[in-house]
Specification:
The protein is mainly alpha-helical. The protein has helices spanning about 20, 40-50, 55-60, 70-80, 85-95, 95-100. The chain has six helices and no strands.
């Protein structure tokens, strides 16, 4: 796996682990939204902020990526294309993110 580098480690900034750009332990967060669960988790946030009257405004907007997200089945197909070393690399690179944000590591048997 190769990255077109933007930082001093040669990684594209978009793919950096969350813990490198957002110190979760140093911030007093009330809620963390997993964007792949949008709009369900967005509704939780709007309710918490007492902004449900604006939900149609949020649901009509595209996120910053402006592209459709891959489905769970599509992601499984992508993972099948990775070799063992690539899966190990990703699991190591994102280990802290997986743990802190509630994601499962990449299945090494897939």
């Amino acid at each position: 796996m190769r990255h077109r580098g933007r930082d001093d480690k040669g990684n594209n900034g978009h793919w950096r682990p969350t813990i490198e750009w957002c110190d979760l332990c140093q911030n007093d967060l009330d809620i963390i939204i997993q964007l792949e669960q949008e709009p369900e988790e967005l509704m939780v946030l709007l309710d918490k902020l007492q902004m449900m009257q604006y939900k149609s405004n949020f649901l009509s907007k595209h996120n910053s990526s402006s592209h459709r997200s891959a489905s769970a089945d599509e992601i499984k197909e992508y993972v099948k294309q990775l070799n063992k070393e690539q899966k190990e690399y990703l699991n190591k690179m994102y280990a802290a993110d997986f743990e802190m944000l509630g994601y499962d590591p990449i299945d090494m048997t897939a």
